[in-house]
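idk why but the lab printer keeps eating my pages so im just putting this in chat instead. protein + nicotinamide-adenine-dinucleotide:
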Amino acid sequence: MSTLPEAKLYIDGVICRASGDKTYDVIGPWTGEPVGKAADASEADVDAAIVAARTAFDTTDWSTNHQLRFDLVKKMYELLLEDKERVSTLARVEAGAAIGAVSRAHLDMAVACYKDMLDLFPQVKWEKDYGRKGPEGYKSDRKVVYEAVGVVGAITPWNVPLYVNVGKVVSALLAGCTVILKPAPNTPGMGAIFGEWAEKAGFPKGVLNVVFGQDPALAGERLVNDPRVDLISFTGSTGVGKRIMEQGAKTLKRVFLELGGKSAKIVLDDAPNFAMDIASSMLIFHAGQGCAVQSRLLVPKSRYAEAVAILTKAYAGFGENWGEFDNPGHMMGPVISQRQMERVKSYIDLGIEEGATLIAGGKLRPDKGGGFFVEPTAFADVTNEMRIAREEIFGPVLVVIPFEDDDDAVRIANDSDYGLSGGVVSADVDRAVNVAKRIRTGSVSINNGMCIAGDLPFGGYKASGIGREWGVEGIEEFLESKVIAVGVPA
Ligand code: NAD
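predcted complex ->
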């Protein structure tokens, strides 16, 4: 497995080491061993990034020069295309992505979504005419202009780091904001590479900055508490999201939150290919570490035994087709860290204690290479009251829950603190759409339709977040509106 180059910070247009040359070891999930070193940013480094971003926003034409922004963000896209090989290695080595997962969300989807953002930039409205209005003698010509909100702190997780970093950095830069990107401690390289691209592309100094460190909270909290940062765009756990909202309140920070999920896939009794629809619900992709994965499988009570038998056979057939670093057919590798592995295992133990029936997996597998491997796992006889059905596990653990009819399926799907995504499978698309409309989540896939794309807004209801990322809506999250009214002489 390759050793990665040292991940460096990018502050005020300079690729640099942390003050005092402090570094930390980046631990690779495949082996549990160090795979590289990363700069360990101090509070002073974060402050320097804030000053750089503030100065760039306040003293340059970045926020008003739409063409300059577009050209540079496009140049960064071209550099990403040239660096696909490096990015793929980062996704595999740092984030533990299997090769089969790299060609999806980790790289190809992120690249496609970046392209979508460039394509939709001309659709962003920067001005809207509201016409002439007012009593006779006091009429005004009114318009609303849309302006960049200012300095953005973009705090991102480790699970699909390129995709999330692109979603925030590209949208905020296109909107005219200046940005401080703060990737997770586990995936600093996927942040540092944005600094390299910005430098190569010739970004004005301070427009994009990248800081990270070993302490998961230090840099992020500094950004959240600093009055010079106007908006925090955060993707991560619901617990940290709540803390950010609370702490951000002191400076009335704009906060945008993309949080956790416990999404339900509802397979209705008329599903066109029931066996295939059930078997394809195995929670394998990237070891279940996706915010929008469908980790609750809801099946009709009348076909529950049949579904459980199909799933048991599917997992048995899947066998050992996972967990090899160099296998292009594998979609699943390790989970990110020792801590995450222990957390997932504790949920598996909890499921057994709660009375659910383990129908696949359940064990840790250090024999796969010494890293953080958890078997693809599924539980039957689960009720929606169990904690394994209610809490986000963020691992390869599927729960199978029976429902009576469409109303009951909707009730169970909605009986969740979360509201990120979900799916419905049916031979009758109208019936499926009716069910989908009643599910309180930010997206619903019908018959395996793809809800995630760079030109579609993505986000959650309830504890899954506030606001939308991607699409024109995603750029608008980084804009303020200003009314301008010009008095008309009587
Ligand atoms: P996390 O909340 O632990 O960390 C996310 C980021 O926040 C990291 O950069 C971390 O260093 C930083 N952070 C931690 N404590 C902080 C604090 N007190 N103040 C400011 N920043 C802080 O999440 P994670 O473990 O990296 O990622 C997994 C979570 O992310 C899951 O809950 C998953 O559902 C969620 N996620 C959501 C989406 C979405 O679009 N809704 C996408 C990907 C991941």
